[in-house]
Design a protein that fits this description.
Helices cover about 10% and strands about 40% of the residues. The chain is mainly beta and about 100 residues long. The strands form 3 sheets. The protein has a 5-stranded mixed β-sheet. It has a two-stranded antiparallel sheet with strand order 1-9. Strands 3-4 form a two-stranded antiparallel sheet. A hairpin with a 2-residue loop joins strand 3 and strand 4.
Length: about 100
């Protein structure tokens, strides 16, 4: 059966450049997300432990994001790399799958 995925709104998203030197990409498509977004994901998924990395598909982007404690804790936000962007989409909900 198809379960309706749990959804978390992302309040702010930014796409930034990858780190490139001599034709190599050093970020490997890894973005970051705020602790507040992580905390809401953990609560909705029923996780007792908080994680620091997750794999995502969001608004035409695909890849891995890690918690960045320097991000503003008052917003649920993600910073994604250009290499994570695969196609144009206006879908702005992070859907969670178990």
């Amino acid at each position: 059966t198809n379960e309706c995925p749990l959804k978390v709104p992302v309040e702010r998203t930014e796409i930034i450049d990858d780190i490139e030197r001599n034709g190599y990409i050093f970020t490997d498509g890894v973005g970051t997300f705020s602790s507040r977004l992580r905390d809401e994901i953990c609560a909705k998924m029923g996780f007792r432990r908080k994680f620091s990395v997750m794999q995502i598909r969001y608004a035409g982007c695909k890849g891995t994001v890690s918690v960045n404690p320097d991000l503003d804790y008052t917003e649920k936000q993600m910073i994604l790399r250009k290499s994570m962007h695969k196609f144009i989409s206006t879908h702005d909900m992070l859907e969670l799958c178990k």
